[in-house]
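Budget justification note: compute hours in this period were largely spent on complex prediction jobs such as the one shown. Inputs:
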Amino acid sequence: VSRYVLLIGFMSYCLMGAKVFQTLETDIQEKLKNSFLDAETALMKNYVNITPEELEIFLQMLALSIKHGIIPVRTGVVYFSWSFRNSFSFVASTLSTIGYGSIAPRTPMGQIFCVFYALLGIPLTIIFLKAVSNAILRPLSGFEKYLQNMGMEERRIRIYTILFFLVTGLSLFILLPPLLFMHTEGWTYREGLYFAFISLSTIGFGDYVIGINPSQNYSHIYMAIIMLWCAFGLTWIALLFDLFAKTLEKTKTKLTCHKLCQTERKSSGKSSYIWPFFA
Amino acid sequence: VSRYVLLIGFMSYCLMGAKVFQTLETDIQEKLKNSFLDAETALMKNYVNITPEELEIFLQMLALSIKHGIIPVRTGVVYFSWSFRNSFSFVASTLSTIGYGSIAPRTPMGQIFCVFYALLGIPLTIIFLKAVSNAILRPLSGFEKYLQNMGMEERRIRIYTILFFLVTGLSLFILLPPLLFMHTEGWTYREGLYFAFISLSTIGFGDYVIGINPSQNYSHIYMAIIMLWCAFGLTWIALLFDLFAKTLEKTKTKLTCHKLCQTERKSSGKSSYIWPFFA
Ligand SMILES: [K+]
Ligand SMILES: [K+]
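Corresponding output:
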């Protein structure tokens, strides 16, 4: 029961935020779009008499517009508008701390709201992803128990469990999704792989973003798959980084106190080596 | 000793990465810049005969250039080039998972290297920031002990310690830095505050980025302050989010098992409430 309360509460928080950002930001983008279109019209009218300086001013303005999520196309359509769906994507990318930045609040109110919204929302997301990490670690410890019942020695069990974690996660979250992106976003496999890693590691440069290809009509099923991929993939990669960090620290400790701690190492820190992270 | 090894190792990893990215990415940006300048020259030459379609194609190209970190200014200078300093900033923003994306690898080799570099680098950064978190928590437990020696009751000590953590961190990392940014970047106080929070929470939209104001000559002292601010601020805000998440979870548990766990609550989970995070 508690898990469903968490899920519903978290989703409500996201939907509420998406609505607020949409309300706060739509006007300014409309205004920017219009002023850009006016400038473009003026440029087209007077281009016989335009000086390099005037062109430059126009280009600077264009650069600003693009930063604000406006891409000029023939019909003057806003490329990445604060529609509810885009606003929701923005909220999801903010709370997960991916922060693509393909769209970001521009109004003073929107920016201030964003700070307080994330201040509460990121801890909520941490709790939510902790619940997801349990859902990942449970089958893993099931796998561990299965091997134990087969009478395998402890060291090998550990290696097989880690391998199982790496192989399934790597295929599900990093190696297979690019095939889907190739189809829906028109990227190469490498670009999809790069996007998958940059997103799930929460770096989120925003040089590749899904769901904004204007020639593509995204289905609801696709969006649902993406959300599941994000929730589980983010958690998996956080667990992976934690595993790497623990292993590296272990190695560092081994290197720095090669002989000193030899007896100490034998006695302690054997069973609590890998799982659980997120203690 | 171990701490200095860590610091030097981490810095070497960053510097090495900065050099590699610079080598991999400089050429393509040069090429893009030149093709943009050619297009601009062609546009300026023939602008009497230009059609709206041709202008549009030019604008699309401009949009692409801006995405690749090229901003057209009078002299055709690359705004955000892969200079060593910018490349180092890029590496720092990637490994901290802030990922502003004001500059990102465009070449296939650069993108692939980026994935593997971050895969090892992010765990290294986690280890590095754990060391920083010890440096933050040590004075805090010193403060706690000071209050204990004064004979204060445990509940009040906890409240005062959290308040001390909040007030000093909030002033040092969130409320004071915007004053510096107002001076160096020409932002308003609100913009600086927004930037500080969006950066330290590792969201990093990239709508505001420091160190790229072309009219400003950044001193080495400024860059050193920024690096210290980042290292300690990132850690402080991670501790803050963890504190919030733990408090929220505690509240959730209280709400869901209001009477059931009353006896349980009394007996356990009292001392291990706040510190240490990052167990
Ligand atoms: K980020
Ligand atoms: K980002």
